[in-house]
Structure formats: structure tokens, C-alpha cells
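Thread title: Can someone regenerate the structure for this chain?

I was given the following input by a collaborator and told the matching C-alpha cells would be attached. They weren't. Posting the sequence so someone can regenerate them.
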Amino acid sequence: MDDRAFRHAMGKFATGVTIITTKLGNDIHGMTANAFMSVSLNPKLVLVSVDHKATMKHYINHSGKFAISFLNQDQKELSAYFAGQMKETREIDFHWFHELPTIKEALVNLVCELHDAVDAGDHTLFIGKVTDLEVRDGEPLAFYEGKYRELVSSERVK
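Best answer:
Regenerated them for you:
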């Protein structure tokens, strides 16, 4: 199978959208990621997948901590910005949580200490130990077949 067929097949898996953030010295860095999963309840571990070429790999490796924000459906523009799809530089008004930058009004903000890093193909799987979290009500920003989607409750479809 070729790369295009594989990428197309993986796009059939609907995901939420996250922004991964960290701080190294005075530098803040963030990136959009939909390759996120919960790994363990005890200890509380989560995983994000970061391309070897991504600047975020250096930041997480050297800071030893990172935050994950689950975006709400009104945060498409932030997702596009942190995915590098918008070329202008913006001042982001971060929500600071345990000295880490997180996305304001996200559905969830997690702060993590780096637990492990595993190279897997052309990505690094960063496993974080969740040290604290915040949860807000709202609807998630969903991603499917390369496009943002809105979820419809089965209760509304009757």
C-alpha cells in the first residue's frame, strides 16, 4: 500500500483536536495534534505522537513537561494557527495552569510530566503522567477525513 492510501484510511478514524503546549526557558511552543490517547488510569498516563521533524519534540525532551488542551467546537482558528496553516504571528493569551501555557476555554486542560518517550517510525510517542486537570462543559472540535466536523447528539436526531 502507498502512503496516500494509508493516510486516507487513517482519516476515517474520527478524533478530537488537541493543542500541545510547553515552555522552555522563556520560549513557549504549541502544536495541534489529533494523535492523542489515554493510556492508563493508575498511574494516570496519556500519549501524544509528535513527528521527529517537529520543533515540539525538542521542547518536550528538554522541558520534561507539557500540557494538552482539548479544543471546543469554536476553536477551529486556534487549531489552524497551531497547525501552521496561518502564516501571521499572533499573540496568544494563554491560560496559565501550573506554570504551563494552556488554551483558554478548552474543554480540558491537562498538565503532564514526561514519563517516557518512545521512537516509533517517523514519530516520537511522548507518554505524560497527568499531574492535574481542569474540565469545562461544551462541545468538542472533531476531525474526520481531513475536515473539522460538528457532532450531532443522537437525541436530537429522533
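The longest helix spans residues 55-63.
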